[in-house]
Design brief:
Blueprint: H1 2-7, H2 11-24, H3 37-44, H4 48-60, E1 64-67, E2 71-74, H5 85-88, H6 92-111, H7 116-134, H8 140-152, H9 157-168, H10 173-182, H11 185-203, H12 207-226
Antiparallel strand pairs: 1-2
Helix pairs in contact: 2-4, 3-4, 4-10, 6-8, 6-9, 6-12, 7-8, 7-11, 8-9, 11-12
Length: about 230
């Protein structure tokens, strides 16, 4: 099974291959602007999130250039090395789906074990996150601390490790590129509001509501990366 998995190409890589083939066949020429995302997704018969991941992968390997406010342009028409998912990273859409599955279960376990001190610690983390946003900085470490602290409170070391590993995948090349394109102070403020909703549910000792708020937060995070307009 490991051998099969290691040779499997992610969906975004398959879409990138399609675009690369169109470039090599002359459908899209050097210097040409590609169709708008919505139109190109329809042309290829893929979802817009999968297309966006593919375009970011092509930008990483130097095939296209994404120019904010202008469009996406072919900058290299020759065949290039097809980077593997190991070098670019997991699909951000699949990553957020996996996080929702794992962290949705984790927050239910944590909710049954929360002490007043634990809740106070989460509150301090969100206060620090708010201060970072107000100062114009990206509160990535406080974001991580919030999610991993909840995972630690699940009292399941395997799940806690999974949460850490999945969160840290956001530093992969493809996720980093998406963050640079689509994260803004406004998106961080909305993430903070979603964290506040999770904490409020935990303070109310409502495990199912906390799970629902966690799912909603991670779904919105995915949407901000893959469905929103670039800044």
């Amino acid at each position: 099974m490991n051998g099969i998995r290691s040779t499997e190409r992610r969906l975004y890589q398959q879409v990138a291959d399609q675009i690369r083939a169109l470039i090599q066949d002359g459908d899209f020429k050097l210097g040409q602007r590609l169709p708008a995302e919505r139109d190109l997704a329809q042309q290829l018969g893929v979802s817009r999130p999968s297309l966006r991941e593919a375009l970011i992968a092509l930008e990483i390997d130097g095939t296209v250039e994404i120019r904010m406010g202008s469009g996406i342009y072919v900058i290299n028409a020759s065949e290039r090395r097809q980077l593997t998912s190991a070098s670019i990273g997991e699909s951000p859409a699949e990553l957020m789906q996996a996080r929702a599955a794992v962290e949705g279960a984790v927050v239910v376990l944590a909710a049954t074990r929360m002490t007043p001190d634990d809740l106070a610690g989460l509150r301090q983390t969100l206060d620090a996150m708010r201060a970072e946003i107000a100062a114009g900085r990206k509160p990535i470490e406080h974001d991580r601390q919030f999610h991993t602290a909840i995972a630690a409170l699940s009292a399941n070391s395997v799940l806690a490790r999974l949460v850490c590993d999945l969160f840290d995948e956001r530093h992969s090349p493809i996720s980093t590129q998406l963050r640079e394109r689509f994260e803004t102070p406004d998106t961080w403020s909305r993430a903070l509001e979603e964290h506040e909703a999770i904490l409020a549910a935990l303070e109310a000792r409502d495990a199912l509501l906390a799970q629902s708020m966690m799912h909603a937060h991670l779904e919105e995070s995915k949407r901000r990366w893959l469905d929103s307009e670039p800044r």
